[in-house]
Automatic annotation (TrEMBL):
Pfam families: FAD-oxidase_C, FAD_binding_4. This is Glycolate dehydrogenase, subunit GlcD. The keyword Signal does not apply. PROSITE patterns: FAD_PCMH (PS51387). GO terms for molecular function: FAD binding; glycolate dehydrogenase activity. It comes from Nocardioides simplex (Arthrobacter simplex). Its cofactor is FAD. Its EC number is 1.1.99.14. It comes from the Bacteria.
Length: 458
């Protein structure tokens, strides 16, 4: 097979500086991300740059040859955000994995896009600090991908999503220009907030190569962990609303439904059978009365047994491990369409009812977990491993879930991003005038439309 002029130029300019993948068998691994229901095209090549200059060269070449570019971090997207298109260049930042600096005094770090989330948090821990965003994929997902999707996580109920931790960015535009945004300061109102714009842009405006991020003091006193079991998911949702209204200093609040608990128990034998919903809450360890308040509110909302309360870090890790097992347990049951809607916390019980009703109406299996403290639900639709594409009943149930979230004043995505899976719903949420503005922004950054085509904007 002859090599295209673009691939030949790419190898010529970058082959001696970083890895350029052109072998068809190897390229197959770059076709999809974790949204396996989204079919990926075959890239013309993949490049793993080591420096920002490498990224700039790759994008300059892609622009000059009119080749679409799909940026990729660790490939953990659940919305098809890193799904390749035929003939594209996949630009993977996984080799850009240096922590350029970490300043304990200013509580700021500058990290390259390929740094794994958990590695940054561990580096910060050596100075008594923490990197707050902690998506469920924190052990494998990278900062670049977290920033590109504005990822959340278990601790976002207190610390916010990734946008609240990003002070500035280094980004390479579609034509190879390198732009720096923001500043490593507490306050900065100079010009438009390009940093905020690029966070969550899903690789459609440029390639994020480095981020200046905010660090927080690591809690000295271990948090108190409260676990409550409920006879229904709706009762657990009511407990969430009451806890948020009461105002204890919550670090995280995670909700798991009975189907999820049973799937975990079948796999790991953790004694979870018979529970229809579980709420795992952590509160600041400096405020012991908050733990008692949470336990009391869970009991009042209908907890089936007295909630367990512990300030032992090892026990807390074991309890949180249950939450992190939710997605792999669902994968054991079949193919998964993992959804990601958010509603005001006061509407959480109603949203839970709407998810259950949609599942029942269309006869599909749904496992629901949630970052309940901020109203972000992850209903996971499970279907046969052998299915090609998303079955019609699953698609119909998912559409009902999206519609319900919007009807209740919420959003079609809280942290996974729009990607491919939700692009047809974006205009329904933001409206035609806002969509026109978003397309104008896209055109200003990427006039040739080469950056991550087919994602976000339909």
């Amino acid at each position: 097979m002859s090599t295209s002029p673009f691939v030949a130029a790419l190898v010529d300019e970058l082959g001696g500086r970083c890895r350029v993948v052109t072998d068809g068998d190897l390229l197959t691994s770059y076709r999809q991300d974790m949204a396996t229901v989204v079919p990926g095209g075959m890239p013309a090549a993949a490049v793993l740059p080591r420096t920002t200059a490498d990224v700039a060269t790759a994008l300059r070449l892609a622009s000059s040859y009119g080749v679409p570019v799909v940026p990729r971090g660790a490939g953990t997207s659940l919305a098809g955000g890193a799904s390749a298109v035929d003939g594209c260049l996949v630009l993977s930042t996984e080799a850009m994995n240096a922590i350029r600096s970490l300043d304990p005094l200013d509580r700021v770090a500058v990290v390259e896009a390929g740094v794994v989330n958990a590695h940054l948090d561990r580096a910060a821990a050596e100075h008594g600090l923490m990197y707050a965003p902690d998506p469920s994929s924190f052990e494998i997902s990278t900062i670049g991908g977290n920033v590109a999707t504005n990822a959340g996580g278990l601790r976002c109920v207190k610390y916010g999503v990734t946008r609240q931790s990003v002070l500035g960015l280094e980004v390479v535009l579609a034509d190879g220009r390198v732009v720096e945004t923001g500043a490593a300061t507490t306050k900065n109102v100079a010009g438009y907030d390009l940093t905020g714009l690029l966070v969550g842009s899903e690789g459609t405006l440029g390639v994020i190569t480095a981020a200046t991020v905010r660090l927080h003091r690591r809690p000295v006193v271990p948090p108190a962990t409260i676990v409550a079991a409920f006879g229904s998911l709706e009762a657990a949702g009511a407990a969430v609303a009451q806890i948020v209204a009461a105002g204890p200093d919550v670090l995280l609040m995670e909700l798991l439904d009975g189907t999820t608990l049973r799937s975990i128990d079948t796999w790991k034998r953790m004694g979870l059978s018979g529970i229809e919903a579980m709420l795992v809450v952590q509160v600041d360890g400096r405020l012991p009365d908050d733990a008692a308040l949470v336990a009391t509110l869970c009991t009042a909302a209908g907890a089936v047994d007295e909630p367990a309360v512990s300030d032992d870090p090892a026990e807390a890790d074991e309890l949180l491990a249950i939450r992190r097992l939710a997605y792999p347990a669902a994968e054991r049951l079949g193919q998964c369409l993992v959804e990601d809607v958010g509603v005001p916390v006061s509407r959480l019980p109603e949203m839970i009812r709407r998810v259950e009703a949609a599942a029942a109406r269309h006869g599909v299996t749904v496992l629901t977990v949630a970052h309940a403290g901020d109203g972000n639900l992850h209903p996971t639709f499970v279907f046969d491993h052998g299915a090609t594409g998303i079955p019609d009943p699953v698609a119909a149930a998912a559409d009902e879930v999206f519609a319900a979230a919007l009807e209740l004043g919420g959003t079609i995505t809280g942290e996974h991003g729009v990607g491919i899976l939700k692009r047809d719903w974006l205009e329904r949420q933001v409206g035609p005038d806002a969509m026109a503005l978003q397309r104008a922004v896209k055109a200003a950054f990427d006039p040739l439309g080469l950056m991550n085509p087919g994602k976000v904007l339909a």
